[in-house]
């Protein structure tokens, strides 16, 4: 077991009895494995913290080789573009970077899993706000959050078109 998870079933960070022990997780993992050569990006949406995170979350890690350095450089550039686009709408600032450094060390992240399975553009959005409302975002902030996040996702998509030489007709 990695850091950031608990073996105790009553803990919020319980890792489960074994990998993919829950049917929902197993179904997503199966889908991603089956289609990983066609999937160019993996996005996960959460609340709250105003962050755009990418691997790794399960450990503080040195980049293992040069090709991974290039991938992480492209990931960072996609995150910068997305966060700048997001901020351009309502001025809301998001932090970005590796999840273990920006947020905390946690095990079992689907973003890390997708990345390690070849989906190199793997991101987790921690949406509004920074803690004032917590998980109970007021109704009047839901649509603005969707609007700005949609623009950020569009920017990640456009980054993929450019860097991965995809056409608009590409299948996702």
TrEMBL record:
One of its GO terms (molecular function) is metallocarboxypeptidase activity. The active site is at residue 126. The keyword Protease applies. Its cofactor is Zn(2+). PROSITE patterns: CARBOXYPEPT_ZN_2 (PS00133), PEPTIDASE_M14 (PS52035). Coiled coil: none annotated. InterPro entries: CARBOXYPEPT_ZN_2, Peptidase_M14. One of its GO terms (cellular component) is extracellular space. The keyword Signal applies. Pfam families: Peptidase_M14. SUPFAM superfamilies: Zn-dependent exopeptidases. One of its GO terms (biological process) is proteolysis. Belongs to the peptidase M14 family. This is CPA6: Carboxypeptidase A6. It comes from Crotalus adamanteus.
